[in-house]
Design brief:
By secondary structure, the chain is mostly beta strands. The protein has 2 domains: about 35-160, Sandwich (Immunoglobulin-like), CATH 2.60.40; about 165-255, Immunoglobulin-like, CATH 2.60.40. Helices cover about 10% and strands about 50% of the residues. It is built from 1 helix and 18 strands. Strands 1, 2, 3, 5 and 8 form a 5-stranded mixed β-sheet that branches. Strands 4-10-9-6-7 form a 5-stranded mixed β-sheet, with no helix packed on it. Strand 2 (about 65-75) and strand 3 form a beta hairpin. The relative contact order is 0.12.
């Protein structure tokens, strides 16, 4: 059978397009490093989410090396956490569940797009090689304010990322002439040890303490403050660790009306 030259050309072009479509879909499914969703995430009672070790305090956890996991709780009409920060050149496994109705967890510009069903945990692993900002949207209608349900994923340079947390316990009020204590607790969310300096500024005084925090651990530093070196009345204080800061006020008076209490 004789096939016209133009027909041959169209047949070849059609085959090229078909192969191209198949290659594009295949790459879109597996090329960026995304794992297909399965039942490995397990199940969870939506009424017991607050008691679950993973979802009671959702967020980013360092697993070691360049591996991280992120726990996310979806509910009408928000994500918890609403903003996620991870470092570039990382492999991230998302675990997402719903507290109420069916939602979705979609990271715009990536292949992260999964239904989030109450009672189930959606799991997917993705590689993020470059820095950037991605929106997180719900593509499953979930009620009146469905259109407002959104979040953000920030991929930052590796040297700008840390999981350090700072908390401070300090009295509100103290009697003049007495010594008091301000306690700073530094938590290290990375699996590697953290060596840093904790500083306290209060009145005209500055205190500094070097501290080493074990990976995935915490360390408390106590600053003994002599109120004789402070002015009577309100004295603002600031505790700083790297880029983290906590502030408060210590009132020095002749009498304490309510005793020492935690801020």
């Amino acid at each position: 059978m004789n096939i016209h030259t133009y027909e041959k050309a169209w047949l070849v072009a059609s085959m090229v397009l078909i192969v191209g479509f198949i290659a594009t879909i295949t790459y879109g499914a597996v090329g960026p490093g995304i794992a297909m969703i399965d039942d490995d995430g397990g199940s969870i009672d939506p009424d017991q989410i607050n008691d679950d070790e993973r979802f009671s305090d959702p967020g980013v956890t360092h697993l070691g090396g360049n591996r991280y996991e992120v726990a996310v709780v979806a509910q009408a009409w928000s994500y918890n956490p609403s903003e996620i920060e991870i470092p570039a050149n990382s492999e991230v496994t998302f675990y997402v569940t719903s507290r109420d109705v069916t939602h979705s967890f979609t990271v715009v510009g990536t292949n992260v797009n999964t239904m989030v069903v109450p009672g189930q945990v959606s799991q997917m692993t993705v590689e993020f090689d470059e820095t950037g900002e991605y929106g997180i949207l719900c593509n499953e209608y979930c009620g009146e304010f469905h259109h407002t349900m959104e979040g953000k994923l920030n991929v930052v340079p590796e040297d700008e990322f840390d999981l350090t947390e700072l908390s401070v316990e300090a009295p509100d009020e103290v009697e003049a002439g007495n010594e008091t204590t301000i306690t700073a607790t530094v938590s290290d969310g990375m699996q590697t040890d953290l060596e840093t300096t904790v500083s306290l500024e209060i009145g005209e005084q500055t205190y500094e303490r070097d501290v080493t925090v074990a990976g995935a651990g915490s360390e408390s530093v106590e600053f003994a403050v002599d109120t004789a070196e402070l002015e009577t009345g309100d004295n603002d204080w600031t505790v700083t660790v790297d880029d983290h800061e906590e502030t408060g006020t210590l009132t020095v008076g002749n009498e304490t009306s309510g005793g020492d209490g935690d801020a």
